[in-house]
Amino acid sequence: GLAIEVQGDQQAWFGFAGTPGYLSPEVLRKDPYGKPVDMWACGVILYILLVGYPPFWDEDQHRLYQQIKAGAYDFPSPEWDTVTPEAKDLINKMLTINPAKRITASEALKHPWICQRSTVASMMHRQETVDCLKKFNARRKLKGAILTTMLATRNFSAAKSLLKKPDGVKESTESSNTTIEDEDVKARKQEIIKVTEQLIEAINNGDFEAYTKICDPGLTAFEPEALGNLVEGMDFHRFYFENALSKSSKPVHTIILNPHVHLVGEDAACIAYVRLTQYLDGCGLPRTMQSEETRVWHRRDGKWQNVHFHRSGSPTVPTN
């Protein structure tokens, strides 16, 4: 385990370490911290012991940390219906965001739920807590089994190579976690490439309705058609959809070359790529247009939307 001994009310930055669900807000903010972090962790443990699941939980670690920093927890029904108000009060005092106002260990020992447990604490057998804890652990084990299967399948060839070596070393937990994180990043980048392809397909099909669903209403853009001016909103693009793209009967094929995706946190991303568009001109001759594009994406309510793009090179509307 990880531990450090502090004297008195000493506070310092001892590093960012620990089990994610038990970390206190001050640790996540990288503020100097001391003994109050232990009371926060005790509050999390008490919460789990009473109902069988943690106060803060999300598969996404970034969202989990946001919950913790905001102190976003509650006492949902029906599990908490039979828990005494005194127990909830003690948890609230332990899970106080401000460490200076958080209950201390000596104060907690004097709390009614602790020192008057014979009259205050509920004496009922909490089988529901045991059942909830089993269900929560089952979900975690299922996720672990899925990730293990993914790793085993993906690294099958590498594993066979290790088995052939007498001094082969098993992959560490740290490297396994790194692989999982790398795969998550890779999947998110592919998601950005896919939604970009969907947007371009809507342009090629002259489908303004589909285009507006993928773009933010306040979309900003620098593009050749705007002659170097920054345009905002959908009206500028509507003109081309209604008067050129939707009326064009020429077959159009677009491919994205060398896409590079930069993830900016959990809900923002930027993609840069070269766009090649093939079409037939008025004489039936094949033509190709090239443009260099950068698009900024923002995820709202689980849906990616294009909020800005910058395009150089040829106009996107094929000419005769």
UniProtKB/TrEMBL annotation:
Q: Does the keyword Phosphoprotein apply?
A: yes
SUPFAM superfamilies (UniProt xref): NTF2-like, Protein kinase-like (PK-like)
**Domain named Protein kinase: residues:** 1-114
Question: Can you tell me where the transmembrane regions are?
Answer: none
Q: Which keywords has UniProt assigned to this entry?
A: Kinase, Phosphoprotein, Serine/threonine-protein kinase, Transferase
Q: Does the keyword Acyltransferase apply?
A: no
- List GO molecular-function terms, semicolon-separated: ATP binding; calcium/calmodulin-dependent protein kinase activity; calmodulin binding
Protein's name in the database:
Putative calcium/calmodulin-dependent protein kinase type ii subunit delta isoform 4
Name its species.
Desmodus rotundus
